[in-house]
What does this fold into?
Amino acid sequence: MNRFFPQPDGDFIQGSTLQQLKDGHFVKVPLLNGANTDEGTAFLPYAFNSDKNFTDYVQSQGPDLDTAQTLLKLYPDIPAIGIPDSVTTRPNETIGTQYKRAAAYNGDYYFIAGRRFASQMWSEQNVTTYSYRFNTAHYDGEEDFISVTHALDQPFVFHITDDTYNPPPFEDMPQSYFDLADLMSKMWVSFVVDGTPNNHGISGVPEWPIYEALDGYGKNLVFDANATSYVEADTFRAEAIAYLQSQWAEQYQY
It folds into this structure.
């Protein structure tokens, strides 16, 4: 199966990327590392209306049926805990009545499990890393089952508050959106210049903690323009994500 992922070439990537991280064979420099709440709505088709739709999708990525059925249990068909987080009702059949469980799995598989694993490995090697979860939807009033999907943090990080994006993500948004762009862009500059994101000079902001996975999990800073940004334990969907990580080598061929 062909994937657009890093492939070992015996030179720059000398072997399994998963194993290299486990063995500490990576460049040990400070890392700022994050993902968005609803990553799983990116690149996911609609019409997940049955358990079989879910297991077929998982198997299309490599795993066998037993693994897919285990994931079926770890990502239960409970709309209130699926993705997007902002929509708690069950979608219609066009979107897929089981779309939210599939989206939760999809985001963990492609983005969030890897973000957590990298943070854990940096911490294990005593290398400084900061982890975040971006939780700000761009377009007020849209309940389109996309919500805080992949890359929506970019105009905040790069402080692109004009109409460069279409539709403009800051159009008709409250001042808190512009304030969050100020904070995030200054934190990124602070990290590049000083090795810490906390020298941003803005008051009333929680300190972004170093990710210290002493019990297996560290903490994220959650960026939310609709509430005060806050620190959370990086333990959401812990059992499901840990199982995904345990199957990467055998079932996903990483």
Helices lie at 17-22, 51-59, 65-74, 99-124, 154-157, 175-194, 238-252. The mean pLDDT is 92.
